[in-house]
Amino acid sequence: MHNYLPEAKSRALYQQGGQTMTQQCAPTIPELKSLIEQLCLSRAHLEQLLDQLSGLTTRADLANLSPASQERTDTQQEKTLQPGDQDPATSPPPQTNVIAADARMQIAAGLARAMAQTDAAVLIQGATGTGKNFFAKLIHHHSQRAQYPLITIPSRQFNQPDPLSHIETFLDEAGKGSLILEDIDELQPAAQEHLAKMLNQPLACRLISLSCNDPDELVRHGYFSALLLEQLRECYIALPLLAGRGADIEQLARYYCQQFCAAAGVAEKQLSPEYLNLLTLYAWPGNVRELINTLEQSLLCAGEQKNLYAKDLPAHIRIQTLHLSSARKKGL
Which residues, other chains included, contact 274 with Cβ-Cβ below 8 Å and sequence gap of 6+? Predict the structure, then answer.
């Protein structure tokens, strides 16, 4: 999955062992430039895929997200993102539709599209790996602030002796763009108090907050400020777990399989019925992020075979799902 150089040239390069290459096997300057560009594009494309937590919903959409079209999207992003913003390779391309056969995910996607047209503070809640960062970036890229910086900061960085200065620093860096506050449930009381006071004043940037836990439960147990929650939750999106979203699991698996194969420059592999069956039976405690990692590991295990089978899944997934599959066949 990670060998992006042509096989023959890879051997030629590694056989030199750091020694000066002979004229016969040394690539020309244009060839070196081409190889470097391929490496950079492939790595950026792969990092982009790992960061995404959803795909597109139709075959036409998937066709529009070919490697070539994604490279064009990356170029457009580089023109609009400002200095101090995150590397464009770590941000998802602007996408209109997420994979949403599940009704709950359809609601979340619709809310994200609507919220992108406002400047209201958004709180996105969901378990680890459900796609909070993806939805936050989706909102930014489809908003009027897309041409300005998108800054992501773990909220625990505000848990410093002088939280006010840290908060002001990141607000200034975001400018007229968007500031994503990850894991707001990790904010300590002092940082919550300072942030709540600062939010009493108009901000140039837009705040998008992320939480793994139910914010109302945090307030109920005294772990989070009710005032701060009110300020951060002008709009709210709840993301469902991946478990039980069988149709979404299959579409996500096919999408990321296609994209990983394209990034590695190999023929697309097919997902066997037994492979898909175990994917839908598994509980996915790591949600979409775990599914993405599982697809990559399966492709590595599959080698040159054309299909992915149950044997290509990690052992813990096979162990946890095979007995469920057997029970289902017996009608239990």
Answer: 309, 310
> In 3D, which of 57, 208, 76 has the Cα closest to residue 143?
208
Structure tokens at 41: 């594009």
Q: Kindly state the DSSP code that residue 200 receives in the 8-state scheme.
A: T
**What string of DSSP letters covers 26-57?**
PPPHHHHHHHHHHHHHHHHHHHHHHH-----S
Assess whether pLDDT exceeds 50 at residue 45: no
Q: Which of 112, 74, 109, 80 is nearest to 93 (CA)?
A: 74
> Which amino acid would we find at residue 22?
T
- The pLDDT, as a whole number, for residue 171 is 86
How deeply is 95 buried, as exposed, middle or buried, from its count of CB atoms within 10 A (0-12, 13-18, 19+)? Answer: buried
pLDDT band at 61 (very low <50, low <70, confident <90, very high): very low
Level-2 CATH architecture, domain 84-238: 3-Layer(aba) Sandwich (3.40)
> Into which CATH architecture does domain 246-329 fall?
Orthogonal Bundle (1.10)
Q: Is pLDDT at 48 greater than 60 in this prediction?
A: no
Mark residue 222 as left, alpha or beta (left: phi above 0; alpha: psi -120 to 50; beta: remaining): left
Question: What would the DSSP string read from start to end of 136-155?
Answer: HHHHHHTSTTTTS-EEEEEG
CA gap 323, 188 in Å, rounded: 44
Residues of each domain in the chain carrying CATH 3.40.50.300: 84-238
Q: Which two tokens stand for residue 302?
A: 């599959």
In the chain, CATH 1.10.8.60 sits at 246-329
Is the pTM above the cut of 0.85? no
